[in-house]
Records
---
Amino acid sequence: MIAETGHFALILALALAFIQTVLPFLGAQWNDPRLMATGRPAAQGQFVLVLISFLALGAAFVTSDFSVATVAANSHTDKPMIFKIAGVWGNHEGSMLLWVLILSLFGAAVATFGRNLPDTLKARVLSVQGSISIAFLLFMLLSSNPFTRLFPAPFDGNGLNPILQDPALAFHPPFLYAGYVGFSMAFSFAVAALLEGRVDPAWARWVRPWTLAAWCSLTLGIAMGSWWAYYELGWGGWWFWDPVENASFMPWLLGTALLHSAIVVEKRGALKSWTILLAIFAFSLSLVGTFLVRSGVLTSVHAFAVDPERGLIILGILVLFIGGSLGLYAWRAPALKGGGLFAPISREGALLVNNLILATGALTVFVGTLYPLLLDALDGPKISVGPGFFNMTFVPLMVPLLFLVPFGPMLSWKRADIAAAAQRLSVAAGVSIFTLALVFYLRSDGPWMAPFAMALAVWIIIGAVSEISWRIRLFRGPFKDAWQRAKHLPRSAWGSAIAHAGVGVMVAGIVGISAWREEVVTALPVGESFRIEQYELRFDGVETHEGPNFTAQTAQVTVFTPEGEQVAVMTPEKRTYTVSQMPTTEAAIRTRWIEDLYIVLGDEDGTGSWVMRAYVNPIVPWIWIGAVIMTFGGMVSLSDRRLRVGAPKAAKGRVGKNSKAGAHP
Amino acid sequence: MTKKQKRTSYILGGLLLLGAIVSLMLFALSENIAYFNSPSDIVEKGAVPGERIRLGGMVAEDSVKRGEDALITFDVTDFAETVSVTYRGLVPDLFREGQGVIVEGAFNNSNLFIADTVLAKHDENYTPPEVTDALKRAGDWQGEGDAKGVSHDKKYGEGSYP
């Protein structure tokens, strides 16, 4: 009964989505306030119905109702409760339902909080949002209905894929989807603006909070996925340039670009049609990402079994929305008045460079990810593009971008003084040169570029600190005054400085593991030791024990310093899950702030020796700490008064109190 | 500079940048592509030492042997031809006999395939599309067009490995 309620609610939601698409659109065309007003209740009602549907599926999972096919295929009575709940979106049908839930939540949020939006713009935004809902609700009802019943119901379920039974991965899809779907708001606003034929600074101010929220979620979602891959898969890596990873990275790159270009639209009224195009592409790539992951067209290390028919439908949705919006863009964009050219050395010039590099970076990732697919579609040879491609194209592109990061916020709008900006960064430059020398002295074993890359990371971090200290005139007067200025500095200034510092922290982590990772693979009998870096690892044996829904072989490895002092006992594990008989690896990781010791247990080789792999990964935790700092920066910026959803007017008075340059963005 | 000249120089600069990026991408592609081969392809074309390829098929039954120092050898088969593979390290959790596999590496001078990557998968029911295709071409596939691998045993019965 509950499942039928969920199914029925989904059908009703589809009907409301139709209403939400058609009526407000006509209302905006005919300028009929009554028709436009239908958008709000339709969007809210649609959210409530999808929520009912989602809760119904949740109830089926929690109560282990195996007469529902999705539950039977993906759950099991023995599974811990948290994974029963996470199991709702740990499968294709449920994850699509989550997708639609977040979509309708955002639609309802615009309908509810968008009071200060002009009526026609709001109506059109809701209409576009509704059309996306129609596409995905139809897709679900026609090809991936989560509420299909099984008769007779099986006695127990198949269980969730064991490697997905993990806390980080339980929350990875919701964040990732909130990011993907969040860009649908930017997309809807972009299409609505094209329909209106008008983009103004106010438009950018409405788009930014949605983009920023989506970006925060996506950053956190990708970081969680990467962290999970690092500790769960037992390969000791954090990013593999795998198609499924790239699928989430491309919208992130364009979303980051969009975040920056919207500032230029808001402040200077320039880059309008470029920003619209970015919004369209950011969401298009989110759709492409969904398509790549859900259609199974790619050979990915993260691939799951899928049904190709579904891929075709998503491809259809993709063509419809990307083609439609780009067509509309080609038709209407020339009508948007440009902001003219501006001086290359200026804040807007720096933001443009940021956009060019990020967009080019996204292009290289796109080519590397989709080239094999294109060749295959043309009946060409089957190929794969290795990580080397991305390291040769994407990575060098990022170097100038990262170098320029501290300059951007130091430049003023319109026409900036590069010498003055450089002078403000002299402390950062000094510290990075010192870092360069120090790293050369400490680690001469890595590639020669590594110390420079490390100096770059420090340059970004100290650059962000310099920016804040310059804005509040730290050390240039009484500390109390600086403190007062710090308190009145706009949140968006704090946010961008924090996020930029986060980038630096992440770069340090990436450089650490890429340049100085140490790996040892060995097979050794019980009682023997092996050495990695400064550690002596003694293999003490393997024991078998029972977990809640798995059997584990746990090795004990004692870690010693060269002086023979015991520092840790580590227990890498191999598990076999009872229901699926699927083996998984549980790496043992000893994290210290500046390095991880990482041990994986392999198989017994038949002679009593066990294969073991150990890594020493320097600075690697900083990658995820950096991502969290970036997300935090985004959230601080989001809390800025001017961006607060529903805030009546921009608060200009508070910013003006500081120096002119303090009026960041 | 007049406004028009300025605009032209921006456009020229943009085109130059685009050209540089495209040529960099083409170069990087030519350096980093690995072609997919089935065992039949390899027997047909002959092994080219040093050329980086991907090899896909099923891990043949009773072929996995573990040697000294974490060395592992196994046969990759499309049920028509078989290629022997050597790999040093830990194989993925779902690597087992009778399951689909993709390995990446190159032949050495003594015609032994040395893999540096054994592709893992996260899902019991997943067979890489290339492997499905290769098996179809070798005429040993009974799937219904979906991506679920039907093992050889299901077709010919347990232990009937050719």
---
Amino acid sequence: MAWYVDRVARVLVFAGGISAIVFIVGIFVFITKEGLDFVLGPLSLGEFFTSIAWRPTSNNPTYGALALIVGTASVTGFAMLLSVPLSLGAALFIAEFATGRTRETLKVLVEMLAAIPSVVWGFIGMSIMNPLIIRTFDVPVGLNVLNAGLILGLMAAPIMTTIAEDALKAVPDTYREAAEALGATRWEVIVKVVIPASRNGLLAAVLLGVGRGFGETMAVLMASGHAINLPTSPFDSVRALTATIAAELGDTVKGGAHWGSLFTLGILLFVVTFVINLTADIVVRGIRKK
Amino acid sequence: MFTATRLNRRSYRTESVAKAVFCLMTVVLVIPVLLIVGTLVVKGAPAISWEFLFTAPTDNMTAGGIFPALIGTVWLVVVALLASVPVGVAAAVYLSEYAPDNLLTRTINLAIINLAGVPSIVHALFGFGAFVLFFDMGPSILAASLTLAVMTLPVVIVATRESLQAVPQAFREACWNMGATRWQTIRKVVLPNSISGILTGVILEVSRTAGETAPIMFTGATAFVAFLPGGVLDQTMAMSYHLYYIATQATDVPEELTFGVALVLIAIVLAMNAVSIAFRVYLRGLKKW
């Protein structure tokens, strides 16, 4: 009897184990299923990637996603300019310099930063940052690349800090001790030993941060101004891929071309984040082999 | 012999400068948390009252309270947990107790990372295509909660796997030596010894689920319903979507009201997170092995 139960449990647990694969495949299948008619029909790849005319509701609809792609890229890029140095610096401080209570407090605060929901970030962008940017820089609109980028930077920072800190912690203490025994200062140990040894982990941290920024929806929708535009300065409003889906899906006709075009944007988002995560995984595996 | 040379002094100076710079970077990163919470408290607190918490919105959302949204969020979180905790714990048990180091296991791990990394709006598209349309649930609490469950599954899996792996191998071996099967060992030894760690993960998942907006926008959340949900096939209001709605779609909403909603939402999320962190610290103190 016990062995029978054991057999059943093994099957059930295995089913749970492969559920993650089932769901990730399911996501791809279902968004492709809804987007397929559009991809095979009205979609013109040339227009999609080179035109900025996203006019799915006009009488003569055009589906140029370039402005959306550039919008996402500019906001994510701006966010990374801010958060990559800050996160890596914070990870170095928490892992290598801070001790005891300071360290625990900082880690909890970083975790709290990660916990703030994206809709609250978006609301902060609209209600606090927007007037602040208008006043500080004397510009007409405060919902722009700067606003969304700052918010996204803060949102992506905790994941980068946590993973980078893990990578730094994974460097064996014997490495540090060996360098210190040769007379190296803390700083020299970090620059010459710890960072080179954890290079791959730090790179993976940055990649996952990029993925996080790239896929963020609500905060970007609310703080970026949501205007189709090729930005020339941080004070221009833009529109992101994710935000476009969130803003338009509610108004579309099921099965129509507009509907399919939004699922096609979803396929694009899925593929790009998949590649980013896969790359990060391969990069991390690189360290383990060593 | 031990007086510092110029080179020594210079490298120590470099070190203190580096330490100060990194410290500053960390502070720049964590200060926004305090600023945001502070601002929300100052601007939102005047709106909070028993009446605000326990009545429905009135006058086109420009007055009244948030009761239906609060209850809706509770519904969404509870149904999502019912779906994701059993699956997540089973997945973690498989990965920690059964899985050999092979291609399948590596693929599962990659799938978990991807599930956590896929944009929330793509989860929303999936939920809409799969649950609302294909499985014909319509926009409902069930469809929204299942979407949330798929999205937050990695949180449960990762937390559970960690706490299972923290149970010493010797415990399992002792149990096997008594003639117990693998499953008996898991049920009587491994799970009881890691249940508190699993709970920590579940509380963290509650915090994540309560704050998500994009996945429920099209799958079950609605701007306004006059009555509380009666079952899982009803549509519902939710705190996160309510905040989005009154901040962007509704007109003439007094600022105080919006800040009040944001404050309640962030209070729920951060309180859950704090409980999870406190629980973890407490458990670390209890560890017997």
---
Amino acid sequence: MKKDTMKLALVLALMVCLVGSLFAAGQKEGAVAAAPKEVVTLEWWTWDSEEYDEASQRAMVKEFEKTHPYIKINMVLLPTKGFETKMTTALGAGVGGPDVAFFSVASWYPKALVLDDLIARDKFDIGMYYKGFWDTKTQFNGKTIGLPLGVGSSLVMFNKDLFDAAGVAYPTNSWTTTEYLEIAKKVANPAKKIWGAEILTRPFRAIWYNYGPNARLYSPDSKTVEGYLNSPESLAAYEWFYDLMRSGATPTVSDMSTLSTENTGPIDLFMANRLAMATLNQGHMLNAVKAGKNFGVVREPGVGDNPRHVNAWSLLVGIWEGTQHPEEAWTFLKWYVGPEGQKFLMDNANLFPSIDAVGKQYKDADKDYVKAFLEILNDTQVAIWRGAHPSGTKVEASITDLWDKIKLGLITKAQIKAELDALVPKAQSVLDEAKKTLIY
Amino acid sequence: MNNAITIANVRKKYRQKKMLVSVLTHLFMISLSMIFLVPILWMFSTAIKSRWDIFLWPPEFFPKVWQWVNFRDVFTRVPMLRFIGNTFFIIVIKTIGELLAVPLIAYGFARLRFPGKNALFMLVISTMMIPLQTKLIPLYSMYVRIGLIDTYWPLILPAFSGTPFFIFLLIQYMKTMPRDLDDAAKIDGLGTFGILYRILLPLCIPALTIIVTYTFLWTWNEFLQPLIYLNTYEKFTIQMGLEMFKGIWSVEWNLLMAATLATMAPVLIMYFFAQKRLIGGIASVGMKG
């Protein structure tokens, strides 16, 4: 009996070992043959705009998921006003951030995953992007932190109906700041509350750069303010602005603050036929097209034969460094901001792609406004100087008093030079301090 | 006779004078109310205009073609009804939370004696001084770690521990009630909870009305916290829905105004229902507090 029990136990033990080894072998074999890939869900934070609305973005996600069954995209559509707050909170917390998102604020750049190794490993063709946008928008501290989605720029839109009514010829791309002033005066009709041009909001955008290489906040080596902020070119730019403000062709400061919407430019006044010319952008241009507005597009005015500048941008889309799924996030990012995604958004919405080869297929490429916009993008980008001079924003903020004094008519034209000279020590001090805090 | 005529005349003159004062008072009040109504009327005017006609000169109060379609677009462009429903859900749960927690806490501070009461009270009150913005990152971090992001819990849970302002309000209200009430209730056999729920709370209805009303209004108007804690579009609240009409390059003022008008209705209805108690409540809390 005892022997039988032992035999039975031995047989059972052998059977267990046999079945176990077979099961293990089978499992190993199965693992090698076809490991079912786990579905990964990525969180993508976005907003909608004139160039890519909610519907087109949701459709794009479906298109992506069709060819990438193991990646699901959870599209988090946020109000544009709240995007910055939410993103800053998540990045500040260091948890709960998006896998992929717009990195539209410079202070977020250190939190973006560096992509250089992934780009090199996959031989991802960065040459397909417009070089100007690649150089100015995707690099931080010498590293690539995202890919550029779409292109945009400031441009001058003019209302052809108002020009025709005033009998004024349309501006052309070769126009100058002097002509801008003359046209604004001619086309303005104060009796009907029609203004020729709007108040430009801040200094040192394309027009100021057009005044010459010394019309800058400070020297190219970021050391000296003297001779730049108060250079003859800067003075000329400020005097031109003074003349514009005193021309009677622009709304007053209070008109502008009452009748325009914060952060959206003077689009409402332009669309209501109350501004003959306005410095707007490609998003506003699409609104005007949609509303059937009779308008034209030119670049911002130049000065003599000086090189022309453009205030252009692209939206940086990056991967949060804290993502749990960097591989999948990279797969989505390179599809979304690559030729497939940008073409999808171009065809199904109104994105102007940052990829030349895709942009050539733009549905309205033969329309005047598209041609004019694309031509403007060839000018030298203001962002090149800005990118190379990260202290510029702080220095600019230190001199805006003069800008306000001119707008409000608190000084005469003859006093501008003295005001600029007086601002130099303050701006120099701000520059010196700002450089110390740079993380570059 | 003369006397009678004189008295009748005096009465008549008095009535006429009274009527005149009444008419003038009403005219003044109506004019004043019109001034207060102008923004709402302008909102209505904007809501029935087409998008780019809002800034026309001269301004038109009534457009040539009334764009009633704006009100339809508000509900088709974004799931506004769903957002309203979500907001109501949060309001109801939060109100229940406040009504459960606040009386208990307030009663403890107002009526019970225990060591460290004053220090604890100061601690509760001091939390009113900390702006939400400074707590946002740690709160977000905490809710992420416990897996409550993209749920309504971060919006609801704090209500179940009572809002400090409401606690303070109710403490002040309860403190004005004579302790004799408690003593009488004790003699009649009521315990602590009996005194709170059967004696004191029925007398606190004006203060509780304020708590309900403010919970409603604050939650209805809350934008920041839902923005931070919610990710799924279908879970968004009314204020997030309104923000969807503000684009990156332009604002659809006509739709935004139509949406605002449409979503003002529940607030107005709430006010009309609570009006009497609310005004009485604020006045009495003011006097007692």
